[in-house]
Write a structure and sequence with these properties.
Blueprint: E1 8-9, E2 12-17, E3 22-27, E4 30-36, H1 37-43, E5 50-51, H2 53-78, H3 83-92, H4 97-109, H5 115-129, H6 134-144, H7 148-155, H8 160-175, H9 183-196, H10 201-211
Antiparallel strand pairs: 1-5, 2-3, 3-4
GO biological process, one term: regulation of DNA repair
Organism: Caldithrix abyssi
Protein name: Regulatory protein RecX
Length: about 210
């Protein structure tokens, strides 16, 4: 509803969605708007509250923020997200750019969003799994929206010695499955496999020199 600058009094508040805690506000028999419980509490709205046009616009703006925040929190309940990744999901939900920015800033202030920590944990989990090389990890994080400097900092723990060790272990497992007898054929097959896993060519050459 578009309100004039006249004062309007909330005559009735009804719960319309118990699960989402959404309430309908009325002026007489006229529906004014639907608001979340968070918005009602934030503005201290109750039956008999008088609302001006300016105040109403503030309420609507806050409700848009709360809608975006609740959607973002639902995404974060499933797993951590990068700021850019979460922003893209909110854009797909048709939230305005300024609302998204306000939501993301709020989440960062509350430490629900921390790109540096996310990037470090992503690399840490990948190293524990020992299935992926640094090039592939960098590509995955860039696609998710991680900043290059954060990726490079996190990858410092994936040093040359560890890369060689992981690459060699993967090569040994793959080699055991190959039925090719010619050394050159095995070399090509393993080289392509390890490159696909995201290892540097120098690391691949060193590993294959040690195995073949």
């Amino acid at each position: 509803m578009i309100m004039s600058e006249n004062i309007i009094t909330i005559s009735r508040i009804e719960l319309v969605s118990p699960r989402r805690k959404i309430y309908a506000l009325y002026n007489g028999e006229e529906l004014l708007c639907e608001l979340s419980e968070n918005t009602l509490v934030h503005f201290g709205l109750y039956r008999g509250t008088a609302v001006s046009g300016e105040r109403y616009r503030e309420i609507v703006a806050y409700q848009e923020f709360d809608d975006g925040l609740q959607q973002a929190l639902r995404y974060l309940q499933n797993r951590p997200h990068l700021r850019g990744e979460l922003a893209e999901k909110l854009r797909h939900k048709q939230f305005r750019r300024d609302v998204i920015e306000k939501v993301l800033t709020h989440l960062q202030q509350k430490n629900y969003l921390n790109d540096a920590e996310y990037t470090r944990m992503f690399i840490k989990e990948a190293l524990r799994a020992e299935k992926t090389g640094p090039l592939r990890l960098r590509q995955k994080l860039l696609q998710k929206g991680a900043a290059t400097e954060l990726i490079e900092e996190a990858l410092t723990r994936y040093d040359d010695e560890l890369q060689f060790s992981v690459c060699k272990r993967l090569a040994e497992k793959k080699l055991a499955t190959l039925s090719l007898s010619a050394k050159n054929d095995r070399y090509k097959k393993l080289s392509a496999f390890l490159a696909q896993k995201g290892f540097y060519h120098e690391t691949i050459r060193a590993v294959l020199a040690a195995l073949l």
